Amino acid sequence: MDFLDESKKQRIVQELVPGKQITLAHIIANPDPVLYEKLGLDPSVDYARAAIGILTVSPAETAIIMADVAMKAAAIDLGFVDRFSGSLIISGTVSEVEASEAAILSYVRDELKYTVCGITRT
Known about the structure:
Elements: E1 21-29, H1 33-38, H2 43-46, E2 51-58, H3 62-73, E3 77-82, E4 87-92, H4 94-110, E5 115-116, E6 120-121
Parallel strand pairs: 1-5, 1-6
Antiparallel strand pairs: 1-2, 2-4, 3-4
Helix pairs in contact: 3-4
């Protein structure tokens, strides 16, 4: 049987070679309270603020720096930061979330020399 012949087996090696890039920067304005709950955010606190910001980055550890920049740029709440997946979720008013995301993109592009995407909105 050919499938048991060791000389004909192929070996596939997958490797993540991260670029220096922000791949997603999105603002959700006026999300439904259910979305806050599904994200693990407290709708009784966060929903009054009316916006969620979502960003992803590689290398993933950059999410820590992005969280710091976001909190220094505007009065946002940090919803989630994951140094392993490169995910960052922030909440606040639409203008606070937008200011934080803009500050993140500027810093990461200009200081860290990453490739960044534009901010999208729903």
